[in-house]
Design a protein that fits this description.
By secondary structure, the chain is an alpha+beta fold. It is built from 14 helices and 13 strands. The chain has a single domain, classed as Cytochrome p450. The strands form four sheets. Strands 2-3-9-6-4 form a five-stranded mixed sheet. Strands 1-11-12 form a three-stranded antiparallel sheet. It has a three-stranded antiparallel sheet with strand order 5-13-10, with no helix packed on it. The termini are far apart.
Length: about 375
Amino acid sequence: MTDAPRVTADPFAVSVRGIGEPHPARAALRAAGPIVRAEAPAGGPAWIITDDALAREALVHPLIVKDPAFAPAHWDPRTAGLEPAAAAQPSLTTYDGPAHARLRRAHAPLFTARRMQDHAGRITGFAREQLTALAATGGTADLMADFTTRFPLTVVCDVLGVPLDRVDEAIAACRGMHSADPAEVGAAMAAFDRLAAAALEEGRHGLAAELRERVPDELTEAQLHYLIFTLIYAGQLTTDPSLGFLLAHVLAGAPAGEATADELVRETLRRHAPAPFSLWRFTSADLDLGGVRLPARSPVLVDIQGINTHPGRAMGADLTFGAGPHYCTGAQLAQLELRAVVEVVRADFPGARLAVPLSALRQSDLGGIQGSRLTALPVILRS
């Protein structure tokens, strides 16, 4: 066994770059080897997997777990962006093994392609309504200022059964989660709790009410609220940046105008993965991975962005939504939303265009394992 090569490039840094500029650390990570060692934002080493085959092995490895209880003892959970340990708060993103499989069985049938297709008409209607309202204001609209956040939150609230007059509250809660002030984050979590309660009120008919009937009996109402929070927050966190990149390329005329909505969505998600890294995983015991010895409680990440965009990558499924038992439950809904926006723009706003050259658009890397988002997307929807 050998030690993983260390990289000095910081893959977790906050930065601003052009829409077409690759992340400055990606090439350095890839060149260093299939598994490399970097300094974690919360301190100490982290191991980053840059090879597709090794990543897929890690994503199903029984000793590489998601439970934050196995994080390095010195990590501050807030600095690291960790959820509560699985024993304190059941979650699809922190459970492993049989407990995860049981909770996933409660969620997965609600988010199949068939179930999501039942919402396609309303999703298209929300996109049309919101873009039409922006077009009616005349002049230039910045779609990153409101649409890319409001649209996915409207969709996820509608699907879950949260009253649509609470969407502004959901927007404020999502933005509050990015605050450096613990009090503001606490207020955002309290707002999510109220939104979950609203979705579960008697007479509501969304997927939140169905989920309540499917989760394990031992879950408390507060724990159920947390599960609904994760669906709302993740539904915005990933789809919001993807919409910006997708719309930028559609309105710039790239790729070719003949590309289908499906093709545009797949290519955008591959090139601009909404999560550049997997969520944190940790070794639950000493193990060997890719010829590297990892001690117990080692933090492990998969470089989704780097693997997806590797110049020598073979054709096939990418890692945008992960792989293995933790494959993203909301993948079908996210792709349906993105396709709907492409179709509405093409059908209702054939003359829509960027108000600036594509090369002028900038993306901000948010730091840590968070993704990047366009800083602005000025468009002219109707001349």
